[in-house]
Every structure is written in C-alpha cells, then in structure tokens.
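From the shared-data thread, chain only:
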Amino acid sequence: RLDVVEGADNDAIAHAVEQINAGNHTVDQQIIAEAVSADHGRDATLELLVDSHRRYGRLTPEGVIDLTKVSYGANVETGQEIARLLPPTDGADGRDLMGNRVPARDGLPLEVKAGANVRSEDGARGVVHYYAEADGAIKSIPGELAVVDTLIIESDVGFDTGNLEFNGEIVIKGSVGQGFTVKATGNVFVFGSVDAGVTLMAGGDIGIGHG
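Structure, as tokens:
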C-alpha cells in the first residue's frame, strides 16, 4: 500500500510472518526495507605536511619542565614537500524506498596557486604536490601557498610561542616576555617592549618600538 519497492529484506519479512503465524511474535519494530542514502563527494582539501602543532614544555636534566621551551615549527627547508592538494571525489546517488533516485553532490574543486618560493607538481590520482624553493616560513592564504623569509608573530612572545629561532627575519607585533629568546638570521623587529632577561640575536638589525 505504501509502494515500497526498493531495499526490501525478504528474509526479514518471511521470518516475521513465520513468527506471527506461530504466535511467537512480540510487539516491536523490525526493519523490513531500507533505502540507500546518497553518498556525497568529498571536497578538495589542502593538506599541510609541516607539523604546526606546538608542544609545550621540555624536561630539563634537573627534572623540571621548562615551559619556555616550546617547539615552534615555523621553519621549512629548500626542497621540502610542504603540502598536498587532494582532489574532490564524485558522489554516489542513492535510492529511496519508492525506487526514486536520491541525487548526490560531487565534491567541490579547490585551486591553490604556488606562490613565492613554492613549486607545484602533478602527482598520481590527481594529487598536486607543493615543494619549498627556499628556506623560510609557510604563508597560507585562501588560494595561495608561499614560503616567506619573514616570520610574523601577531601576539606577544611568551608561553604561547616559546623561544623563537628562524632562518630569516622575525617581526613581533607585540612584546617579548621576561626570560624568552628570539634568534633570527635576518632582522628582528619588536613593535612592543622587551622585558628584563630577554635575549635577542639577529644577523641583521634589531629594532624595538618601546622600552
């Protein structure tokens, strides 16, 4: 009566009828027909291969955890693979219980340009590989991936960043907290202030905006 023509489980139906005829059935619900859901495609995704997770704290020989020793993974090296662009996948249509097609959505494409100091290579199964052409830091903006020789810290240097060491220039928009170290092969610019006990080392100039 409901025009169910798709996904019927004939074995389950026959078993239910047998139980009813034998008087052994219980009042419950049994699945006797099941539709096929649409399987939507996966959108293209950019997968960064450089570990950007910061690991807080390092155990000293004295058995003390030094929270200033944070692994800040900012550097990449020439020739290093830094990212992969995984292509979208096609969707697979489903069917409802009445036999009607349930359309699936194909995954959406994504275009990522190889910007400054980055080259791209087409790989197997539509995967695009990105490689660093220079030492530096990854700069990822929508639609473009680049390697720059300036590391920009938008906040203070403290326990959130740990000590900084970078092959290039470091620009710190905030201040440098007490006891932290900043090392760069290029310039070091601090927009804010520098607390007591800070070490700044630069292969170029050092500029401090406040005291």
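The chain has a mean pLDDT of 87.
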